[in-house]
Amino acid sequence: MSIMTEAEAKTILAKVIKLSTADECTAQLTGSIEGNIRFALNNVSTSGVVSNIDLAVTVAFGRRVGTATINEFSDSALARVVKRAEELAKLAPENPEFVPAVEATTYKPSDTFSAATAAITPDQRAEVARASIAPCRAQNLVAAGFLQDEQSFVAFANSKGAFGYQRATQMDYTCTVRTADGKGSGWVARNLQDSSAFKPASDIEIAMRKASASAEAQALEPGKYTVILEPNAASGLISFMFNYFDARQADEGRSFLSKKGGGNKLGEQVFDPRVTFMADPWDKELPVFPWDEQGRPRERMPLVENGKIANLLYSPYWAQKQGKKVTGRPGNIVMSGGTKSTADLVRETERGILVTRTWYIRMVDPQTVLLTGLTRDGTFYIENGQLKHPVKNFRFNESPVIMLNNIDDLGRPVRVSEGGRMQMMIPAMRLRDFTFTSLSDAV
Amino acid sequence: MDRRQFLAACGIGAGGVLLPGFGRAIAAEQLVESLDVAVKKRLADAAMSAAKAAGASYCDVRVGRYLRQFIQTREANVQGVTNTESSGVGVRVIAGGAWGFAATNSLSAEAVADTARLAVAIAKANAKNQTAPVQLAPTKGVGEVKWATPLRRNGMEVSLQEKVDLLMRVNGAALKAGANFVNSSLFLINEQKYFASTDGSYIDQDVHRIWSPFTVTAVDKATGKFRSREGLSAPMGMGYEYLDPQAKDKTLSPNGIISYGRSYDMVEDAQAAAVQAREKLTAKSVKPGRYDLVLDPNHLGLTIHESIGHPLELDRVLGYEANYAGTSFATLDKRAAHFKYGSDLVNIMADKLQPGSLGAVGFDDEGVKTKQWPLIQDGKLVDYQATRDQAHILGKTESDGCSYADSWSTVQFQRMPNVSLQPGKTPLSLNDMIAGVEDGIYILGRGSFSIDQQRYNAQFGGTLFYEIKNGKITQPLEDVAYQMRTPEFWNACSAICDERDYRLFGSFFDGKGQPSQVSAVSHGSSTTRFNGINVINTARSLG
Fold it and tell me: Which residues of chain A neighbour B512 with C-beta distances below 8 Å?
């Protein structure tokens, strides 16, 4: 019952809207079934399934807003939740930043659902754990991993006639493989909408290879190096930067996109001309819902185009205040790149360092988006197009803004696992003068 | 309902229908209700009977009601008020030597019994691939007992109007003192937890926590520079009395910075923050190099958390967290070898007892009576943090009481207790400590933090930085971060102020596990000196 059909959802939402006497009413149903399995030390540790469904009702009387939620759907329960939201709205203070609900519109559906992912069974999860653990056991390696799969739906409607319904699926697999003596460690991550493309047997080999190859790492002096960041290594830094694309923050002077003397950097060249970030709900490999959390329709739009800031993100209130068009907040970011694989980039590198994973990234200075973090689970020295030897992990202090001005080459974008708030496709990238500030003994 | 209850659910600032996190939105007046203990006992008994009948050798039941209130403001606006409730029952069993867990949000005896049977079925399925059976350290049943956070004023009973008025005064003080922007918040948490087990315990606990953070921002439009200053409060295991400031709880540094202990003057701190945020815009950029650091408890707590608290979690040490939080450099062989973790001055105690701390409870989430025990003695590693099924690995006959789950719906596992640096044994005040430093930096408040997956290499920023020259604080500094290797850093500890300066730092949302769970934990210390620590300059230019 956690996943409703469109007709079931529509019936409930229509009843809610009809029950409300407020100036405006918006109702949203969200439901999900999440399954997971966790393993460590070559044994399954926990597994489970969690189902959930909720109805949220928001009403407005003028600028007074109230929200109530419920997880029962009988007629009396629906009447109760609407009454509750209306009582709350009548007692609320006026919200000076109130913006009316979205007008009725037609949302162009995006292909966010895959039947195979929705059909994953506990036995299949157990099989993924087995397929991860067995080859590691056989080679005296130690696996620790996590598989999480989810199917969900969102349906919403408002008193202006807007209605949306869509289902989605996603699976996320990560596995860390360590050598038995603890001297080597490798990692693999796979984020997919359609689990039928998931091949744990070949993925685990990536982590196993990195674990074995990263043992007996040599220390290099910290400093500025040419680096190749694998997509999952780059995404951790880049996703942080998009927290600062909010137009209000930039206009208020507290973002790297604020301009000296006031205003923001919309239209300015901030990155290397090869840098383009596109938000696109209908992207073939990374589709997301065609509306945002407030039901506003999303659009295909560049945030950065050829290195220039093409769009900032406006809340409805700030857009209204600044006389800008309101668009839905993006749900994904697709970075442009080329066709090369990480291996191709390595082959074309005279000297450099391959970083396969970054870890514990935190903001040091929001003024410049300076971030610190570490490399982990396989860092290698490259010489004349070959991985020469593993190197000890580094701490870096680097800004993605500076990093994306030091591009040497970009590879093929892929879906990444750790994209932060937004789903991301990021290419592997070769960068000049990446700043490592100290060595870490951690494996 | 009346006007006073106007904020009785989320949505003041919400233009859409975003669901609040954590649970179901409820009315403010429901935050003070609790479940009848007799009902909870009946549910627990139903679960335990069903589990035993299905073949469980052990069963514990947690009937939980988790309440949260979150108020957010910016400048003169209340952006949102969220009250949430999440209630349900989690049942954990051992069957066939393996753990099984299941949970339900239904509070009927039938649903709870079904859930117990499901937990047994999961345990039996897990048992097929189990290499060694679960070994539980013995815990004596305690019968029917109660424990509650000692409160003078239950925050859930304080009117929303009073809370909003306080935050508006905070914001007003900051703006009046020169801030361009201010965001302030108030978090209140109440965990009503009923634990029962087949060992014969029925434990009813009422746990309260409070946190009141703010951020003040100053902008210099002409240069495009902006700087923020966070509040110097600590989240606490206390009631609303924490926000009733008492003069005796304040500490004054030689340059007039006020730090807070068991109570907090949020308005005063916001006013100071506005002045200091503006000072930061023109403060001297630090020259990189080695300095003696004088670290305030409200800063040092996070360093203790990351570089001692986490590496001594036994599940991490053993490899259970390898895929997410990581492992630990502090392996079991190091305990056997009395590894020199820090200088002789460094004594670290773990506890779940300190009054006012976030970790304080009467019993942990597997019914173990809480206690205090040493982790590091005279600089040497002596112990870890363990749960009932881990105690035997350390050769112990009892659990340390470190089990915690963040909800009735999540399975309990090993979480960090309070981990605190003991005050210096010889009298030493903050002023005396600073007077003894030739070339140093005084750091207060939390800043950015990052540490590797085995807890060796860390980098910490802070909120406020001051240059110390020849025993005197001379001027504010900016762009400061220090980098450290854990054992070298703790072995560079050269002085600790005495117990007069002892205060608690807190971490309200510490993440661990997959799926991730949060926990709250305090770290006590007095101001402490570390010699010759590597400081880097974090200023960059975007051209």
Answer: none
Give the three-class secondary structure for B418.
Answer: strand
Q: Given a cut of 80, is residue A421 above it in pLDDT?
A: no
* B434 Cβ contact partners less than 8 Å away, ≥ 6 residues apart: B253, B254, B294, B442, B468, B471, B472, B473
Residue A93 backbone class (left: φ over 0; alpha: ψ -120 to 50; beta: rest):
beta
Who contacts B337 (Cβ-Cβ below 8 Å, separation ≥6)? none
pLDDT in tens, B71-121: 889 999 888 777 777 888 999 999 999 898 998 888 889 999 999 999 999
Interface of B with A in 154-213 (CB under 8 A): 180-181
Question: Is residue A187 a part of any domain in this protein?
Answer: yes
> Does residue A64 lie in a domain region?
yes
| Confidence class for position B5, pLDDT limits 50, 70, 90 | very low
| Average pLDDT score over residue span A106-119 | 96
* pLDDT for res A53: 85
Contact B101 A48 (CB under 8 A): yes
- pTM of the full structure: 0.94
In this complex, which of B11, B13, B323 lies closest to A174 when CB atoms are compared?
B323
A363 and A308 within one domain: yes
Cross-chain residue pair B24–A71, CB shorter than 8 Å: yes
Q: Can you list the domains of chain B with their CATH numbers?
A: 3-210 (3.30.2290.10), 289-537 (no CATH)
Nearest to B535 by CA among B477, B496, B491: B477
* DSSP assignment string, A99-112: -PPPPP--------
Closest residue by Cα to residue A16 from A121, A155, A152, A114: A155
* Alpha carbon distance B348, B309 (integer Å): 10
Q: Which residue of A has its CA nearest to B26?
A: A68
A1 occurs within a structural domain: no
What is the C-alpha to C-alpha distance for residues B241 and B260, in angstroms, rounded to an integer? 14
Rounded Cα–Cα distance for residues B449 and B461 (Å): 6
Alpha carbons B240 and B459: distance in angstroms, whole number: 34
Is omega for the bond preceding B515 within 30 degrees of 0, making it cis?
yes
Tokens 């002077």 identify what position?
A253
> Are A179 and A60 in the same domain?
yes
Range of the domain at A178: 6-211
What are the φ/ψ torsions at residue B182 (nearest 5 degrees)? -150, 135
Helix and strand totals (H; E) in chain A:
10, 19
Q: What average pLDDT does this structure show over B512-522?
A: 93
User: What residue in B sits closest to A67 (Cα-Cα)?
Assistant: B11
Residues A401 and A362 in one domain: yes
Per the structure, how many domains does chain A have? 2
- d(CA B154, CA A284) in angstroms, rounded, equals 53
Residue A238 and residue A153 share a domain = no
| 3 state DSSP class of A245 | coil
Mutate which: B2, B5, B12, B122, vs A, most A CBs within 10 A: B12
How far out from the chain centre does Cα A385 lie? 32
Q: What is the pLDDT of residues B174-224, one digit of tens each?
A: 999 999 999 999 999 999 999 999 999 999 999 999 999 999 999 999 999
Which of A190, A211, A232 marks a domain boundary?
A: A211
Average pLDDT in chain A:
94
Specify the CATH number for the domain of residue A23: 3.30.2290.10
B324 touches chain A (CB under 8 A): yes
CA A375 to chain CA centroid, nearest Å: 20
A25-48 pLDDT, tens digit each:
999 999 998 888 999 999 888 877
Q: In this predicted model, what pLDDT tens digit does every residue of B279-300 receive, in sequence order? A: 999 999 999 999 999 999 999 9
For the cut 60, the answer to whether the pLDDT of residue B18 exceeds it is no
Which chain A residue has the Cα nearest residue B18? A293
Q: Give residue B351's pLDDT.
A: 98
A82 and A204 assigned to the same domain: yes
